[in-house]
Design brief:
single chain, 231 residues, mainly alpha, 2 domains, two-stranded antiparallel ribbon, 7 helices, 63% helix, elongated
């Protein structure tokens, strides 16, 4: 919410003399925003086709409106789209807290580095929230295969529930938030491949003809008896 409010104010005419400065800071955030999309696309196994970052729009070259886009080779699934679209928000949040508590309000850095950190923090705040294109990509991915999308939502919800039950019963606390997400991803993959294995076993059993079973042949597992041409 802070990102959206700050973006709508500083990039509008209400910002006055701050608007040209905000656009240049916003351009730095756009670079990080699209790089986060690009990196997360590689993590989930969707190799990007291209990454485009421009200072002006092609439709109106006189309008200074920085923008960027990451184009994928094929359509991702709903869960992949959600992870890719939320990547800038996640990484920006971590960097904002690190810049705020680790650089700006620490006595170990000089005023110049702290000033640069403030500009970077503002640029991350301007571009942390998912754009309209990111939200549209999530909706389009859901519409491609709604049944599979609901299946992914069920699996990820079940993974979160399993982790929550485990933490409540064992009182285990991870010292970094990222380990919760990694654990949820691991449980999700375990459930996914377990259900795939069960489905293959059920299909194999259902396709087996118990009334007329095939005879097991052991000939290919035995060695051929050697018979010389001349005794």
């Amino acid at each position: 919410m802070i990102s959206l409010i700050l973006k709508n104010f500083l990039l509008s005419e209400k910002a006055g003399v701050l608007r040209p400065i905000a656009r240049r800071i916003f351009f730095i955030g756009v670079i990080f925003h699209e790089c986060a999309h690009y990196g997360m696309s590689l993590v989930v196994g969707r190799v990007p086709k291209s990454i485009i970052i421009k200072w002006r729009k092609d439709t109106n070259p006189y309008d200074r409106n920085p923008y960027g886009v990451v184009r994928l080779r094929d359509s991702p699934s709903f869960l992949q789209s959600f992870v890719i679209a939320s990547a800038p928000l996640y990484f920006s949040t971590w960097l904002i807290f690190w810049l705020w508590f680790g650089v700006i309000f620490t006595p170990f850095f000089n005023p110049f580095i702290k000033t640069v950190a403030i500009f970077l923090l503002v640029s991350l705040l301007l571009t942390a929230a998912p754009s309209s294109g990111d939200i549209k990509m999530i909706g389009n991915s859901f519409k491609i295969d709604p049944l599979h999308s609901w299946y992914q939502i069920f699996l990820i919800s079940l993974s979160i529930l399993i982790l929550w039950i485990y933490i409540v019963n064992t009182h285990v606390i991870f010292f970094l938030e990222v380990f919760y997400y990694i654990t949820i991803a691991g449980i999700y993959l375990l459930l996914r491949f377990s259900f795939i294995t069960i489905r293959k076993l059920v299909n194999r059993i259902s396709s087996y003809n118990f009334k007329n079973p095939r005879k097991i042949r052991f000939r290919r597992f035995t060695r051929k008896y050697y018979r010389p041409a001349k005794p």
